[in-house]
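Chain A, query sequence.
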Amino acid sequence: MKSYLTTLVLLGFSIIAFGQNKLIGTITDPHNKPLENVTVSLPELHKEAFSDANGTFTFENLADGDFSVTFSSIGYANKTVTVALNQKETTVTVILEETSTHMDELIVSTVFNKLQSQNVMKVEHQSVKELQQKGAATLVEGLAKIPGVAQISTGTSIGKPVIRGLSGNRVLVYSQGIRMENQQFGEEHGLGMSDAGVESVEVIKGPASLLYGSDALGGVLYFNPEKFAKTNTFTGNFNQKVFSNTQGSNTSLGIKTSTDNWKFLTRASYSTHADYKIPDGDRITNTRFIEKDYKIGIGYSTVKYQSEFRYNYNNLNIGLPETDIEPSNFRTPLYPKQDIDNHMLSLHQKYFFKNSKLEADLGYIFNNRKELEAQDEIALHMKLKTASYNLKYYLPKSGNLETIIGIQGLRQTNKNNGEELLIPDATTNDFGALITSNYEWKKHSFQAGIRYDTRKIDSEAHGVFGEDGYFAPISKTFESFNTSLGYKTKLIDNLTLRLNLASGFRAPNLAELTSNGVHEGSNRYEIGNANLKNEQNFQTDLNLEYGNAHFEFFANGFYNHITNYIFLAPNGTIIDSNNAYDYLQDNAALYGGEVGIHFHPHPLDWLHYVSSFETVTGKKDNGDHLPLIPANKFSNTLRTEFDLQNWFKKGYALINVDYVFKQNNISAFETSSMDYCLVNLGFGGTVSLGKSKFDLSVNANNLLNKTYIAHLSRLKTDGIPNMGRNLVLGINFNF
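Chain A, predicted structure.
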């Protein structure tokens, strides 16, 4: 493996640039008026430019081939054109139509990298800035504002994303172009990443095993890192947020610069929060946490080659709330607590040939997780090391047919260094191969593919046979073929239909196969099952979208059948003063969907009303409900946009009302949850004072200080409410 990766890296730096093409263009509105400051992007080449006062732009030193060029400007509909660069100079003329609708974003989590309007698969795209404007205090809290996404929370410090009722190892997380691995099997193991230096997130709601292999059975969260600076510029920004409820602070500082060939960026952030306060004024002891995050990126590009290296270090010091802890200090987490270091390195490379290209993503993650019961007493200490690769070759385009072939894989080792073991030392090896094609014909688009995966898990023996805490060695191989078929068409003008059929799979994880110990964060003794089989699912998705200049509507429906669904159930015994749980399997089904509107009436284009409803039901074949299914939710937001003379630009004010329904459809080991209604306010914009300019945001979350307990809160069993009123003030300076 090491020699293979080394050869691939050296190959990247050995390619000599050739071919020099120039792209020039003019951008106007429908009345032939030149448009200035339009953002023009060549996303496949990571190049951006702005149109000048004459509406013109220029790119030089471009590779041969067919490339997408996107045009975006506030107040105009996004547009994408494909240009063939095979001569010294290519000219394009583009007309942008006025609109008040949202931006049509380029989607990178699907292999063909098309605009959302062109995508066969429905993908939710949200910028982190948009999530923060909605009052999100943490990254996962922001994700939970996307229809179809929820979170399993442990106070404010730990949030675990849920997509349409599935979570944990059933939801794959990608960051910096590589899959994150951080012992995500545990309910109390959070996302493990900061929103600092993250530009946007894309959510695939449904099986994506064709693209990503095992663990993408329930969906994918794909985080896009912040972009490099535009060519020959130096920029930076300082961001500060304060939180009233937790008396918390989040500070972030970043700088970036670029030349014609080289790009560089770096960002550091620090967050600290005290115990959160519930509406009656009490604080929940040891829900405090401290997070440190550092990122660096280096890019290099020529006409025929691009390379991008990124490194992210994240440290989390998280308190674990328990009823018998005496509060002390203020911010420093008490025992028990988690101390987690995560190192992520990624190398993304592109090679451009005359009519095709090759992409290679190499990744390495070192996750160092400690769970401490007291000072110098480490209950669990697991070191997880993951090396991964992902190679995709884009075949020459044949008419309207695009085809990609690829291979993916990883090698992972788990090593224990603590006094206690929950899972043994083990090695995991993955390999997958895929082929997928996209065909466009008039108003119709078809996408289909097939993939083969294999996973091999080998664990070591530990302890003495017949005694408590003994781990028998296992050697297991899991295989699966998966397919996907998608169709998109325009039924009438502005009305789009998408139909996707896809299978997915998930090989049992190490915890499910081998656990034999107390899971401290969950307070239960878990017993693995070495005879578990693959989870295999098949999902049908139907999506309808309508949009014109002032009204948008969407309706998503899904049915997801899972064979051999893995779950925990108590076996009626007590081991080490904890209830013992076994890993079992049964067939299950989940179904539901999301529906919503976005209305901004003419001539009141500054006024926006956004409403959505989401629902999911999960049952085993015997009729029992699945655990951790989020309650139905009805969300409504009224938003205004305005300018106040020259000193306050891009202003907005919003009121959001979320009604969460009762959740009585519960598993045998859950308790039902009452309904509740939350009111949130938001206000912000860009302030100009002389030559100084900064972004300001103010949010009031749970404005009415409502006492409630979310169904997916892990503190629900102790009757602990969620956070009370929280005011968030944010200031961002760009320089």
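Residues 1-18 have pLDDT under 50 and may be disordered. The chain is about 5% helix and 55% strand.
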